[in-house]
Amino acid sequence: MGRAPVRIGMVGLGRMGKRHADNLARRVDGAELVAGCSPIDDETAWAREVLGVGASYRELAELLRHPGLDAVVLATPAIVHVDQIVSALEAGKHVFCEKPLALDLADCLRVEEAAARHPDKIVMVGFVRRFDPSYRDAYRHIEAGGIGRPFLVRSQTGDQLDPSGFFVRFAPTSGGIFLDCSIHDIDLARWFLGNPRPRRVFATGVVAVHHDLTAVGDVDNGVAVVEFAEGRLACLYASRTLAHGHDTHTEIIGTAGSLMVGQNPRRNRVEIADAHGVRNLCVADFYERFKEAFLLEIQEFVDCVRAGTPPPLTLRDATEATRIGLALAEGQRSGRVVELAELGG
Ligand SMILES: NC(=O)c1ccc[n+]([C@@H]2O[C@H](COP(=O)([O-])OP(=O)(O)OC[C@H]3O[C@@H](n4cnc5c(N)ncnc54)[C@H](O)[C@@H]3O)[C@@H](O)[C@H]2O)c1
User: Fold this and answer.
1) Is the distance from the beta carbon of residue 286 to the nearest atom of ligand 1 less than 6 Å?
2) Interatomic CA distance for residues 274 and 124, integer angstroms
């Protein structure tokens, strides 16, 4: 492109932040990872020692004063996203933020307002599946009229059972299974169905294995129906307890056909025929499944910053997905159908 690289600070160097940092330092064209930021010294030391990142900060406010910084990538807990995005925008930085945008609607709107005050800054929320080559192919096929008018999306996010219950520690700050996991399926449903207006939702769930979740009102298996305007529907399933591996797949049904993406979460093309029958191994976790998409996603962010073009998904997309996710969480807790009004603005 012939432009200067985008100088980026990575905020949060945990499970997701390390992977973004690794991509930014080694694989993203036009990016320079200039600093790492985490309150945990071991994590910033990892960025320095493994990736050769020059500067380390414990707090975002310090990172934002780093000379020449252009952008931040936030992979921090959801409860701090909004304050961090607003601070970064006010400091004149472009922002990539992991999903979910926020844990309440007023906060989403606060980010939209801050972004409107800084129209020259890119703000992009990480709905990684939109960058997965198979989901992209499906989108193009639908756009070309390949399945007629799409009216129903059935989509699931399923994590393999982790008997240690590692994620249970994060449940109080993640927003629960619908905001943490189903938000991806919600975003896909909106994308494939042409951004229809959500009208009402029903959600329920069970605690099948991780009984500690009951104390925070969360479940480890959840199902939901989202009814949109103009006769469009989404049926969602999220699980933290699958036996066979990470199993994320989606079916899009239209008036002239349907598409299935990722129906068999196979690790590779090997089929094993033995005393158990004919089978294949599965991807182990979300990163194995979406590794390529994570790279394409962050490359897109960097390209948008360099070219000054808006990202392919808007903040309103992130607000709407969060709003539907919040309605599902409320529905699951209350046992009631939750109606959604039209969102102004
Ligand atoms: N797109 C996906 O599929 C996907 C997958 C996993 C996680 N995520 C998202 O990524 C985000 C992080 O999740 P994770 O699993 O990496 O969590 P994590 O707990 O492993 O990492 C969080 C990091 O943030 C740091 N941190 C906490 N408070 C901070 C602060 N105030 N300032 C700077 N750093 C701070 C922690 O020290 C840690 O480095 C969440 O929003 C999560 O939903 C997205």
Assistant:
1) yes
2) 47
13-26: pLDDT as tens digits: 999 999 999 999 99
Q: Which atom of ligand 1 is nearest to the CA of 290?
A: 3
Pocket of ligand 1 contains residue 98 by CB under 6 Å: yes
Nearest CA to ligand 1 atom 23: 12
1 pLDDT exceeds 60? Answer: no
Burial of 120 (0-12, 13-18, 19+ CB in 10 A): exposed
**Rounded-to-integer distance, Cα 181 and Cα 279, Å:** 27
Work out which ligand 1 atom sits closest to the CA atom of 170. Answer: 19
Task: List pLDDT tens digits, range 184-205.
Answer: 999 999 999 999 999 999 999 9
Closest ligand 1 atom to 97 CA: 41
| pLDDT 10s digits, 39-60 | 999 999 999 999 999 999 999 9
333-341 contacts at long range (C-beta below 8 A, 24 or more positions apart)? 333/217, 335/204, 337/200, 337/201, 337/202, 338/200, 338/201, 338/202, 338/203, 339/199, 339/200, 340/198, 340/199, 340/200, 340/201
Token digits of residue 74: 């936030």
CB atoms under 10 Å from CB of 77, counted, come to 16
Q: What are phi and psi of 118, to 5 degrees?
A: -130, 65
Give distance in angstroms: CA of 9 to centre of ligand 1. 14
Ligand 1: nearest atom to the Cα of 286 = 3
Whether pLDDT at 5 is above 70: yes
Spatial CB neighbours of 99, under 8 Å, sequence gap ≥ 6:
125, 126, 127, 183, 184, 187, 318, 321
Task: Identify the residue whose C-alpha is closest to ligand 1 atom 7.
Answer: 16
* pLDDT number for residue 171: 85
